[in-house]
Fold this protein.
Amino acid sequence: MRKHPHLIQINASFFLSRMRVKYGRALTLATIPDDEWQVFKDLGFDWLWLMGIWTRSPSSRNHALHEETLKIAYERYLPGWTAEDVGGSPYAVYGYDPDPFLLGDSKALSQLRRKLSQMGLSLMLDFVPNHLAIDHPWTLSDPGLFVRPGRKTLKEHPDWFFKTPKGDWLAHGRDPYFSPWIDTVQVNFYSPETREALTKELLRVAAVSDGVRCDMAMLGLNSIFEKVWGECVRERKSHEEFWPPVIAAVKKEHPDFTFMAEVYWDLEWDLQQLGFDFTYDKKMYDRLKSAPASDVGGHLLAEEAYQNRSVRFLENHDEDRAVYTFGREKSQAAAAVTATVPGLRFFQDGQLDGKRVRTPIHLRREAPDKIDYGLVDFYRMLLAYANTPACHHGKWKFLAVQPVCEENITYRNLIAWSWETEEDWRLVVVNYSEYPSQCRVDARALLGKDKTVRIRDRRSGEIYKRDRDELASLGLYIDLKAWHIHLFEPG
C-alpha cells in the first residue's frame, strides 16, 4: 500500500441503484462493468470503502419504515419514496454476509474483491463492534453475549432496554452522550465469549476484504464501556483492552490487513497505540470548518507518526456535504488541505461532483442532485496533483510563513507545506481566510542550480520565473485572494 493513500467512501446501495438506472438492467456489485470501477483507479484512489454491504435487519427496516422523523427526512430528500426504497440502517447488522440486494453471497463478494485487486484497488468494508441488530440471531441463541440491565439502570432508564421474544432483557446500543439506537443491541465487551465471537466475525470479514472501517471504535475502550455500562455488566472489568488481541488475531492470518477507526473525543492517539493503522481526524475537520488558519496550521504540527495515521476528510455519511457545510470557495481551500497533507486522504462519492444533498442512509437510492462541473474539474486537477511520488512518498515539511512588511499581518491567514524527493517537489500554499493575504514562504524546496527558477501553479496553469538568490534570502512572495490556493510544481 502506498504511503498517504487515497480512499473513497461509496454507499453500496446508492451506487448500485445508480448503475442499474444507467445500464437499464438488474446488476449486482459484482456484475457492474469494469469501466465503472476503473474510473476510481484513474482518479488515483487506492481504496474503495463499500459502505453498507452487510445483511440488514428486518426489524431495523421495519423501524426505518415507520419512524416519523425518518419518514419526514425521506420525503424531504426523496419525494415520492416508496417502501421498496427503504433498506434499514446499515449499522444494524443482522449478519456479516452480503446483502442479497447488493451481491447475493460471499462468493460474489470474493469475485468483486479479486476484480478490484487486479485493477490495483483495495477493498474496505464495515465492521460494527459496539452493537448488532436488535433481532440478530444471537439475541435468541446466546443472549449472554449482550449487556443485560442492572436494576438501578432499568428503573431510571427503561428506554435503554428491550425484551426479546424469549423474555430476556437486553440493552440497546448507545454511546455516553446520546439516546440509544433502538434498532440495535449492545454487545458486552467484558465478556470473553463476546470477544471470541466478535473476533470470529471479524476474521470472516477479513477473508473477503483488505481492510475494515470500524464504526465508533472508541466505544470498545474499557474506560468508555465502563462509563456507559459499568452498573450493568456482571463480569469483572477486563484488564486487557478489547482491540489489541482482536487486531493481532486478524493480522496473524492476514498480515497486510488494514484497520481504520471512526473515533472521536480526543481518543485518536489511544487507538493508534492499540493497533489501528488509521484513525479519523475529526479535530482537523472541526478546525477546517470553524477555526482560523493558525489553528489549522497548529494541528499540522503534531508529531509525524500521528499525522501519518490520521484520516483527513471533509465529508462522510455522518457529516453534511462539503459544499453545503463550507460553501463552494472555502470547500476548495479545505479540500486542498486534506488532499495534500500526510495521512489517509478520504473522499466520499459525490464530493468530487460538488453534490450538496446528504441522503439518509436508511434509503436504497440517493436523492437527485446537480453536478457542479466546475468542482468536477477542480477535484480532478487536485487529485492528479496529489497523486504523485512526491506527495505519497516524499519528505513532508510544514513551512513557516513570514510577513512581507511589519504592518501587514495578513500572513497569519496563510498556511504552507512542501513535499520533496530527490527528483521532484511540490509546494502548497493556502489562504484559509475570507481576506486577500500576502506573505513570504520558505522556498528552499524550489532551489536548483539555475539562477532563474521556473515554478508552475497547477491550479491556474501559470508559470512564474523567480531569481534564485531572492528566493534563498527572502523566500517566495505570495499574494492570494480569499480562499485561494497555489499548487506549485517544477515549471
Q: What stands out?
A: Residues 192-206 form the longest helix (15 residues). The longest strand covers residues 414-420. Residues 302 and 468 are 31 Å apart (CA to CA).
